[in-house]
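Entry: BchE/P-methylase family protein
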Amino acid sequence: MVAFINGKVDNIMPTLLMITPENSEIKRFRAYQLNNFMQLTMPYLAGFVPKEYDIRLLDEHTEPIIFEKFDLVAITVNTPNAPHVYAISKKVLSNVS
């Protein structure tokens, strides 16, 4: 959805960043895989997000995390990877005004 704000066209859709963080255990496993597919958790969940959201899916295995301001950030995690996700969360929270 777009709106005119102060004479400018502006995107007023809420933004959602969905992060699949890198996992050292999975990375070690992926190194020997020929069929190296991304995890499907976040793309699957993105299908349930209302259409009003502007969604950005990010897999840390293929691109670095962008620490821009988003209205909502979702991060998938498994227990061995929790310390890494906590560090990501702290960086994300530092962008909250």
